[in-house]
Amino acid sequence: MQKYQRFWRSVAVVVGLMVAAMTWVAQGASSNPNPRVLLPQSKPYGMSYAQWSVRWWQWVFSLPANNSPILDTGDCSAGQSGPVWFLAGAFVPTTVTRTCTIPAGKALFFPLANAWADNTGCPYTTLTVEDLKALVVRLVDGVGPIACTIDGVPVRGVGSAVESPYRVGAQVFSYTLAPTDNILANYPPFGLSCIADGTTVFPAAEDGVYLMLAPLSAGNHTIRFTVKDFLDITYDLTVQ
User: What is the pTM assigned to this prediction?
Assistant: First the structure.
């Protein structure tokens, strides 16, 4: 039970690539219920939603606890690179408003509700890959209702984690912790003091409902996403 309690639902886009993405959005707008959101079956910037979801977790764990957007100890620019920037969710229930400056031309990828599991512990546990996958699926199945608005416009198809087309399904991956002040050892809800900085963890599993937003226009934007009885996160964004 203690092992399971450590798995918290966290409940977060090079000019040529941007032009390609916007062209794709325009071509698919007639069949896309959320024109600002890239279709879940697409491969934005060369990777699937599932692959980006793994990259999201690797980004989260690569940052130290004292400079972490998901812990509200670091700016949203921490650890960001390439055409896609990540927005953070939360490991624990929270209501928070975050202010963030995004460079123009960056897509945004973030979770509405997700979960991760692995065998880190003091001592380590011995769950199989299939055990880990089943665990994260159960966790995500149990969340909700979910909601998201972009500049006040509701995103369709995200209300139920079980039915959402934006759910990636269970993914198996590895991640490497920050070389100093790693989250697992230094964030109190985990408090795994035996986990050394720079440790690479495998296997890990994750699942969740994620969105990939096409680059937003210059100016101010607001993204809000909620999971009932768990989180309410608002991003006040400035794109410039």
Answer: 0.88
